[in-house]
Amino acid sequence: MSVVIIDYGSGNLHSAAKAFERAARDNGLDIPVVVTADPEKLRAAERIVLPGVGAFKDCRDGLKSIPGMWDTLEDQVIVRARPFLGICVGMQLMASRGLEHDVTGGFGWIEGDVKPITPRDASFKIPHMGWNTLEMQRPHALLDGIELGENGLHGYFVHSYHLDAKHPSHVIATTEHGMAVTAMVGRDNMAGTQFHPEKSQGLGLALIANFLRWRP
Amino acid sequence: MLKARLIPCLDVKDGRVVKGVNFIDLRDAGDPVEIAKAYDAAGADELCFLDITATHENRGIIFDVVSRTAEACFMPLTVGGGVRTLDDIRKLLLAGADKVSINSAAVADRDFVRRAAEKFGAQCVVVAIDAKSVAPGKWEIFTHGGRKPTGIDAIAFAKDVTSLGAGEILLTSMDRDGTGKGFDIALTRAIADAVTVPVIASGGVGTLDHLVDGIRDGHAAAVLAASIFHFGTYSIAEAKHHLSANGVPMRLC
Fold it and tell me: For residues A209 and A18, what is the distance between their CA atoms, to the nearest angstrom?
């Protein structure tokens, strides 16, 4: 039983792996963390993490360039219902389409498009970069025990696009940046965070620990 | 709501932390990885490494420093200094940097900013602008640690690199850097109001009020300082509470 972090050339994953290892250790969970580009190892995973930085299309192309990776992920998440966490562009890939540069297809697990953030005035800088609080839209196991709201903990965001979900019930949390920006989505065994839990100190380690214990 | 960011900066030379006073006198303040861990624990919002001698000397050591820091710290890390090629950026990102700051190379070839943003995403491309006042309300870009004038207007340049894909501007006043007299507020505000991306104010912090000025009057999204933290003049917590008490939205937990 392991948590697999998928490595498809989208940046450095040592820091993410260390964050998962630390969250496991701090919570007395004996769960090996495997960083891999091998779909066979993904098949053996109990839990799956899909990170992603950069552009939507580059990340999709990166995943597609590994033979068998896209289909194995679909199989593990949809058919076998493994607990899944997408991070940043890894979360955006759960959408139907990305509209960054070109129109690019995503997994389509969360119906909706990945669109530019359009704040109400120019005092809100783009990219939305830095620490922001989360407004919970519906309770979720991954947010258990985490203080949210204006006086709560912060997630670290760095993005110019967000997932505009078709069904409000798929939006777990939003954040305010001159508009309601989607911060977390989920349904069934899958969740995605626009912010980076692996860079979000206290909130991040708590959310990762919740993910490692999650039994959807 | 999005909070203002407080960013301690470590000037790194040969794998050790130094702080240049006007970029000339260097003092050794220790191991960058240990200091990074201490800042992480203290609640710094991000961390910045500037490999200040990278243009002249062997760069290999910084990759090891970045990689060891990224493994120990769960906070965003920006690395700059001597970044000239897409391969330099790739290596720093693979070592564990979240953002890479480009300085002279962007001045020499603005299209480099476009290529970098296209390849790695605007979110990781920071353009570092070193500016000096040349007339009232006018600032010029200087490169090579402030030694080399370029004749390029800082505001026009900031707008230009932003339109080419820079995701953030790290703005240093070469008139103020190392003086402890505070940010060049007029410069900071002129650039912050001219671009759509976040601006990090840098150069000249000597007191906690200077940090407040940078956000409140300079309209910066983040403030960067080095020596006031390294030598223990103020702690990260003191600085963040001071900013918060003066009306700047900060992350205090």
Answer: 13
Q: Which residues from chain B sit within 8 angstroms of residue A122, using beta carbons? A: 196
What ipTM is given for this predicted complex? 0.92
Catalytically annotated residues of A = 88, 196, 198
Q: What is the pLDDT of residues A7-54, one digit of tens each?
A: 998 777 877 898 999 999 999 999 999 999 999 999 999 999 999 888
pLDDT at B25: 38
B32: cis peptide before it, omega within 30°? no
Q: Exposed/middle/buried for A89, CB within 10 Å: 0-12, 13-18, 19+?
A: buried
Of all residues in chain A, the one with the smallest CA distance to B121 is A54
Interface residues from chain A to B (CB-CB < 8 Å): 11-12, 14-15, 18-19, 22, 53-55, 58, 122, 124-133, 150, 153-154, 156-160, 176-177, 196, 198-202, 204-205
> Do the Cβ atoms of B3 and A205 come within 8 Å?
no
pLDDT value of residue B245: 98
Number of other CB atoms surrounding residue A112 within 10 Å: 22
Q: In this complex, do B122 and A127 lie within 8 Å of one another by their Cβ atoms? A: yes
Q: Across the interface, do A53 and B124 touch by the CB < 8 Å criterion?
A: yes
Provide the H-helix boundaries in B43-141.
60-72, 86-95, 104-108, 111-120
Burial of A46: CB neighbours in 10 Å, binned 0-12, 13-18, 19+:
middle
Positions of E strands within A99-170: 104-105, 110-116, 128-133, 135-136, 154-159, 161-165
Percent of chain A with pLDDT over 70: 99
* B247 CB neighbour count, 10 Å cutoff: 10
Token readout for B98 is 């979240």
Strand A110-116 and strand A128-133: pairing?
Answer: unpaired
Cβ B121–A53 below 8 Å, yes or no?
A: yes
Q: A54: which chain B residues are within 8 Å (Cβ-Cβ)?
A: 120-121, 123-124
- Closest Cα in chain B to A174: B1
In whole angstroms, give the CA distance from residue B249 to residue A121. 18
pTM exceeds cut of 0.90: yes
Residues ≥6 apart with Cβ < 8 Å to B38: none
